[in-house]
Design a protein that fits this description.
Layout lengths: L12 E7 L2 H12 L6 H12 L1 H12 L3 H9 L4 E6 L9 H21 L4 E3 L1 E2 L5 H13 L6 E4 L13 H10 L3 E4 L5 H8 L9 H15 L2 H4 L5 E3 H4 L6 H14 L12 H8 L2 E2 L6 H11 L4 E2 L10 H8 L5 H15 L3
Parallel strand pairs: 1-2, 2-3, 4-5, 5-6, 6-7, 8-9
Helix pairs in contact: 1-2, 5-6, 6-7
The structure holds calcium ion (CA).
Length: 347
């Protein structure tokens, strides 16, 4: 494996790093075996992983390990700290009662693992938005009682998006506790996934980014960030493409306002680009490519872009070398790898 530079002048904090308890994968397998879901994205994604013994064997060991094995992998790639979170779709695929109970149990287990290695791990809790009141309550418990640093939500829940007022309690809880929601990708719901699935586009290749960026734009255009102006919703994978579109978003927001093109949509207080810069920090998960990271830094802000590896899906020392060797000043690299995460997750 490639040698990683030691003591580069910053800590490497990886902010979107996945785990999966054996219990959850067992329940996923049961859903598949007993046809407990007809969600096309889940069937494609987890049908593949759980049906592919070789790929799953390697992944499963890394998914389950929240101790020495994970730390050895971090050491091998120069990662000082992981912010660990439950892999997609997490508990959001289960029914409301089961999802709520599992979130509580998984968060307890995760916080225990963090407390055993507080120098190497921080974590985000999981919640079941299919039970909004229970999810808001669990978010609060995860942060105030368990010391977790926020929560992960895997994009849509049963085809529903966080701009729906039924989810406001969750957003209000995150805002008032001053913790971020990491909006991690999931496969698109049935009404959106058809044209993707026909051509194998529904997953990490591109569909995740389409689904998650649409979700973020729905939140912006619905006025969610006017209602919750301090809310921070983190987007991985170079902001799921949104930074690339800023000038176009603002242009068409203005055109639509002049022409009153969509009278049913609320009038926003700010430009779309301002919500993206102010409410949506981005990470480099799965995007070890200097042009993307530097572009995000340029248009979103040097204080708003964080490092992530996307372990164990992408676990490659060469990718760390790519970001280590970005042609930017050391002080900016330190913001990228370390201090932005320390500030945004309040580590
Ligand atoms: Ca991920």
């Amino acid at each position: 494996m490639t040698e990683i530079r030691k003591n580069p002048g910053y800590l490497r904090i990886a902010t979107e790093e996945a785990y999966a308890p054996a219990e959850m994968l067992r329940l996923y397998r049961k859903l598949l075996d007993e046809k407990g879901t007809d969600d096309p994205g889940f069937l494609s994604q987890w049908g593949y992983f759980l049906g592919n013994a070789d790929r799953m064997k390697v992944l499963a060991e890394r998914f389950h390990n929240l101790g020495a094995g994970r730390i050895a992998d971090m050491d091998a790639t120069g990662i000082d700290r992981q912010i660990v979170s439950l892999t997609s779709p997490g508990v959001q695929i289960f029914n409301s009662v089961e999802g709520t109970a599992l979130a509580i149990s998984f968060n307890d287990q995760l916080s225990e693992a963090v407390h055993k290695n507080p120098d190497r791990f921080s974590a985000l809790g999981c919640i079941a938005p299919q039970n909004p009141a229970g999810a808001a309550k669990e978010l609060e418990r995860a942060v105030t009682k368990l010391g977790l640093k926020g929560v992960i939500i895997n994009s849509n829940t049963n085809g529903e998006y966080l701009d729906d007022p039924k989810f406001y309690d969750i957003l209000a809880a995150a805002e008032s506790l001053n913790v971020p929601i990491y909006l991690h990708p999931a496969t698109a719901p049935r009404r959106m996934i058809g044209p993707m699935i026909e051509k194998g586009l529904e997953g990490a290749f591109y569909g995740f980014a389409v689904e998650t960026s649409v979700h973020l734009l729905r939140m912006i255009m619905s006025g969610v960030f006017d209602r919750f102006p301090k809310l921070q919703v983190i987007a991985g994978h170079g902001g799921e493409g949104l930074p690339f579109w800023l000038c176009r978003f603002d242009l068409f927001q203005k055109n639509y306002a002049i022409n009153n093109r969509f009278p049913h949509m609320p009038k926003l207080q700010r430009k779309v680009s301002e919500y993206i810069k102010g409410n949506i920090p981005v990470t480099s998960s799965g995007m070890a490519w200097a042009p993307v990271i530097q572009f995000c830094q340029q248009v979103i802000g040097i204080d708003r872009v964080m490092y992530a590896m996307d372990y164990p899906y992408q676990f490659d020392a060469n990718e760390v070398v790519v970001t280590d060797e970005m042609d930017i000043p050391l002080e900016d690299k330190k913001k990228f790898y370390q201090t932005n995460a320390e500030r945004i997750f309040r580590l």
